[in-house]
Amino acid sequence: MEQYFIIDFDSTFTQVEALDELARISLKNHPDREAIYKQIEDLTNASMEGRLSFTESLQARVKLLCANRDHLKMLITHLKKKVSTSFSRNTMFFKNHQDEVLIVSGGFKEFIIPVVTEYHIKKENIYANTFVFDEDGNIVGYDKENPLSQEGGKVKLLKELNLPGDIYGIGDGYSDFQLKESGMIKKFFAFTENIERKSVAEKADHITPSFDEFLYINKLPRAISYPKNRIKCLIVGQVDEEALAQMKREGYNLRHRDNIEEKYLDEAGVLLCDEANLPKPEQLQNAGRLKVIGCFGRVGRKLAEAACEKGIIIFDDPKANPRNVDFIPRRVLAFMNEGKTHMSCNFPDLQPPRINNAHRLIHIHKNVPGILAQINEVFANHNINIVGEFLVTNPQIGYVITDVNTGYDTQVLSQLKAIEETIKFRLLY
């Protein structure tokens, strides 16, 4: 059976509400701009939360805009920089599912088409409103015959399209939920990467904090193997807000605790802490999910070696060094995203280049002879071609990154994990 993916634009495909942003451009020099901005934002939220009909909200917002074609050009440039992070990294999904992905929005084609077509989404699969202009290029209204300009417009449109197969809806607003309420779609996913509207989220089949989560839940190809919102990042001690903001922007599930307790450490994938709140070496014994520690301060040799034996990488920096606000999260993310170990205090140094259209697998093992041969034998037995492979060692561990250019079944992963002397194995993307 065919599948279709109905994706909203404002606050879903992009991080912002486009009409709100257009107002900030067009009313930049207006003496009452702040009051009008607030009025437009209130109208947007009232509609998205189901407190005001979409028709009433749209009419009022367009009337307040005072915008023209030149303002739209500026808006498009702005929106291209505001595509939601998890959508922008999954360009290949859109390229491979061009016939199944539809953008359905109460926004306007004039700014939606230039943004989403850069992600391989077909122009004919973009359904939205259209502005009406006067002879000087000023926006004076919109096509009121378009079903998407009316209350329940997305439901009306899908009835007209009559798509054969299962339909999945992804959005942040009440008009997206109406598709589920009408019975037109199989499941509604409330997208909360940019904003969470409680009245919408509580009615959804599933809350998806990122597009990666949606793809993961539905077993669809994705840029990263495991959604970052499912990885807990434990925060203990004095960690700068800017460092936390970097982790949050990446989508990690941040958890603040006053001290390190094993029950929290055991479920964390990332630990950010200061020098006064480092884990004890014995606390790492059951931290099976922990992949990386970022310390705002220095780490002693005993902890560094204990972490290395468990396949846990550590990045540290002198406590007073002003660069660590940016340095520590950047190194942590470079490891989590690409497997880079540069500047670690306990892992051998590796900075592999990213290879496009490849899958990256990480294998950490005790530094004994013959492991690389066993890894390659697994790939050879399954006729998997290696396009890049990197091995570095220190006295404790061997660290291997392998890039392969074909798909694989779960048996391959199981066999790699089962190699004797394996400490940790991870599928990166």
From TrEMBL:
EC nos: 3.1.3.3
Entry cofactors: Mg(2+)
Reactions catalysed according to its record: O-phospho-L-serine + H2O = L-serine + phosphate; O-phospho-D-serine + H2O = D-serine + phosphate
Keywords tagged on the record: Amino-acid biosynthesis, Hydrolase, Magnesium, Metal-binding, Serine biosynthesis
InterPro entries for this protein: ACT-like_dom_sf, ACT_dom, AHAS_small-like_ACT, HAD-like_SerB, HAD-like_sf, HAD_sf
Pathway this chain belongs to: Amino-acid biosynthesis; L-serine biosynthesis; L-serine from 3-phospho-D-glycerate: step 3/3
A Pfam family: ACT_AHAS_ss
Keyword Magnesium applies: yes
UniProt enzyme class: hydrolase
Stretches assigned to the ACT domain: 360-429
Keyword Iron: no
Protein name as annotated: phosphoserine phosphatase
